[in-house]
Amino acid sequence: MIIQRCFIGTGPLYCQGRKKVIVLFHRGHEHSGRLQHIVDELAMPDTAFYAWDARGHGQTSGPRGYSPSLARSVQDVDEFVRFAASDSQVGLEEVVVIAQSVGAVMVATWVHDYAPAIRGLVLASPAFKVKLYVPLARPGLALWHRLRGLFFINSYVKGRYLTHDRQRVASFNNDPLITRAIAVNILLDLYKTSERIVSDAAAITLPTQLLISGDDYVVHRQPQIDFYQRLRSPLKELHLLPGFYHDTLGEENRAQAFEKMQSFISRLYANKSQKFDYQHEDRTGPSADRWRLLSGGPVPLSPVDLAYRFMRKAMKLFGAHSAGLHLGMSTGFDSGSFAGLCLSKSTARQ
């Protein structure tokens, strides 16, 4: 990771002392230098803007397109946002995050896993499910990764599939800092993590605006909608932008997207930062619902039910021959009792 740029107005300037902070995260393959137009077009001179080059991108060191894991990159997100707040001398509650594509997935994962108390976020065309046009590409890549280890895949995406803006197309195709390759472990991590975040998006309670490109040839739309519908913030917005390609914030008619972003961000800063009320989560939250469903057991004679029945029979049959299983069955696999008995037996042997 490189702490690359701090913007105010039309250029990089001294950002300390600004009361509003917006942190920008670029798309996959790109870098912070391609985000200057966002700063200019949002036109918020009282706001400090920060942007980075993600690991393996732009001016960072190391192999192009590589990170040890998506989890490590998400940790980078946490460290960078906290740096931006500290550098501007404000609390996290004054920070808004804007992220696109793969950057939006990392930010969504960050707010899910780290639960930061930021003011809100804007996600543009998050890459929850990249379109792989080769049949069985994902299982094939996973198998080859297991057999061969780390390798890199070059992106098939050309500038003309990202935006109708000819200047942006040309700059993308000719930018020497564009990273065409992506490490296979990151691509596979992206799929796995996205599925987890979309399925458990109810855990995200921050104010969120989601911008969806209407003609996106790079990522699928349905996971974006599923993610949005499961969000539990009382303040959330979804906007579908007809005719937009994947580079939502770099499209020819991006003024439509910027108008919606400006309105949403103004609302966030116009009111005091709100904290989600978790007082009744044990009774009315999604985790409580999940607990009640699990407590009722699986559907009778379903594959899951039959698997559990087989497991119970096997444990009873072989439990007598295993000290560990016998101990677990005698304590109901209660972790406290189990650990206490293990400790007492260990002490007795001494």
UniProtKB/TrEMBL annotation:
Gene3D superfamilies: alpha/beta hydrolase
EC assignment: 3.1.1.-
InterPro entries reported in the protein's UniProt record: AB_hydrolase_fold, Hydrolase_4, MAG_DAG_Lipase, MeTrfase_dom_put
Keywords: Hydrolase
Positions of the Serine aminopeptidase S33 domain: 18-252
One of the record's GO molecular function terms: hydrolase activity
SUPFAM superfamilies noted in UniProt: alpha/beta-Hydrolases
Protein name (record): Putative hydrolase
Organism of origin: Escherichia coli
